[in-house]
Amino acid sequence: MSAAAEPREAAVELLRIARALDYPRPEFREQIDPGRTQGEREEDYQSAFDVDGAPLYEGFHRGSEGREGILEDLIRFYSFFDLRLSETERDYPDHLVTELEFLSFLAMKEADADAQGGDVRPFQLAQRDFISRHLAIWLPALARRLEAAGCESPLYPGLASTLQELIEARGRALKQELEGGTS
User: Fold this and answer.
1) In this structure, what CATH number is given to the domain that contains residue 82?
2) Mapping DSSP to helix (H, G, I), strand (E, B) and coil, where does residue 77 land?
3) For 121-133, how does the pLDDT look when each residue is reduced to its tens digit (9 = 90+)?
4) Any bridge partners for residue 95, and if so which?
5) Which domain holds residue 155?
6) What is the pTM of this model?
7) What is the dihedral of CA 58, 97, 49, 52, to 10 degrees?
8) For the chain, how many structural domains are there in total?
9) Tens digit of each residue's pLDDT (9 = 90 or more) over 18-70
10) 3-state SS class at 122
């Protein structure tokens, strides 16, 4: 296995989970939630992620810290890598899908740099910092809220739990790489 395989696999898995946590699109939902109608999928999504349930926005889970500061920090992360939010499918920078797409982007950049013999460290540092300053802080709260909400479908609590495990594992792997100097 090449050194790039782990980050590339993480990038793909992060995108897969991001698509599953995005608003239900018929073409994708049929692959992960067959046997349910589009209306049932949309109902499940709305009941799981409405503001009273477990919204998919970091600022709602870290309200005491002030959402504005969180949004500013996220925009700085995205801008540093010349990324901007889509003008057509625009959402807030603290939406979980946006954050996962960004982390996937960084993991893929790391894998590409490694495959080309380039410097992977900037991408590893960015992933580590992004995880520790954002996802590692609020994903546990999201997973707990989804579990407590008693969603009719086990899809979303299961995805949140899987995602939390993936983020924790990625964080550990990055810490080992950065502290162990094995890249």
Assistant:
1) 1.10.3480.10
2) helix
3) 999 999 999 999 9
4) 57
5) 5-180
6) 0.89
7) 20
8) 1
9) 998 998 888 776 777 777 888 888 888 888 887 677 889 999 888 788 889 99
10) helix
